[in-house]
Amino acid sequence: MLARARVRWLEIQQSFNLVAQLLESPGLAAVRSDPLKSLQPSAFCVSMVESWRGETVHIAATDEQANLRHFKIVDPSFHNWMGLTMALRGCQISDFPLNNKSFNLSYAGHDL
Fold this sequence. Notes:
This protein is of the alpha+beta class. The chain contains four helices and three strands. Among the domains are: 38-74, no CATH class; 77-105, no CATH class. Strands 1-2-3 form a three-stranded antiparallel β-sheet.
């Protein structure tokens, strides 16, 4: 348990350092404002980005008239809930709160 607390403490320190650097030199990153392009008809697009719990996936599909037909977001917790289930096999229900917080899963994200 102390190892997890140490990792969180180091993450917090790193975050503060990053914020301090950005406040000192806010103009380091170029800001882009490209105009939005039209959607392509009958297209399917998948975007995967790394978030703090794991990969977040965005899926979009358009119809023949280039209207958005379907959009879905898959939160990392969607995949990780099964890992929590496996970790709790053979454990008592009283172990659930500690294990649940260790995995730090999103309840709302699971239903996306």
